[in-house]
Design goal:
mainly alpha, 196 residues
Length: 196
């Protein structure tokens, strides 16, 4: 009896598979094309992201210009220019305080010592200023490197995203459906319908 159940189950599975099978409708044998098929060659360029990243690496903002996102280039230039300016300014100030500290340690008069011998900034003040300026300089250098890498990544990702199909046929339309069998119990759900 057990083997009969197994045989019936196997037979049911095989019948249901053969019923639900479909023929491939894409196989067409005798179609001749009279005209040349036109394709849009600018639609997909697999090298576009790498070119955008290359141009961004050579000249910051170049990848954004390559992607025809011209408004992003001044933002990149401003961010990198500001961080480079902060690096140079903090480095010059660090050198200034470092030179004053070395001169004071050597017993010479530095720019923070008045003619009468009184100190504008103490020794500990010079040391504290050097530490602060060095930290600020290093942070500005780090932010410059981060902005440089981010603009390369942004140019490459933007080039990838520009190649996606975003026409109106690919859309999301929410709909509400009601249960016609049972009106008393409200039911909530979510369904997606994709049109291509």
């Amino acid at each position: 009896m057990l083997s009969l159940k197994k045989i019936l189950f196997l037979l049911t599975v095989l019948i249901s598979i053969s019923i639900s099978a479909q023929k491939d409708s894409t196989q067409v044998d005798d179609i001749k094309i009279k005209e040349k098929i036109k394709t849009n060659s600018n639609y997909f360029n697999p090298l576009s992201p790498s070119k955008a990243a290359f141009y961004a690496a050579i000249l910051p903002g170049g990848g954004q210009i390559y992607n025809k996102k011209y408004w992003k280039a001044p933002i990149v230039w401003g961010a990198m220019g500001t961080s480079i300016y902060l690096y140079l300014d903090n480095n010059n100030e660090y050198d200034r305080y470092r030179t004053a500290f070395k001169m004071r340690e050597a017993g010479l008069q530095d720019e923070f010592t008045n003619n009468d011998g009184s100190l504008t900034i103490s020794r500990n003040g010079l040391i504290s200023a050097q530490k602060t300026l060095k930290n600020n300089r290093d942070l500005a250098l780090l932010s410059t490197v981060i902005f440089y890498v981010l603009q390369i990544v942004e140019a490459s990702v933007n080039a990838h995203l520009l190649q996606f199909n975003t026409n109106d046929n690919v859309s999301f339309t929410p709909t509400m459906s009601y249960d016609t069998r049972n009106y008393e119990i409200p039911k909530f759900g979510l369904s997606f319908k994709f049109n291509f």
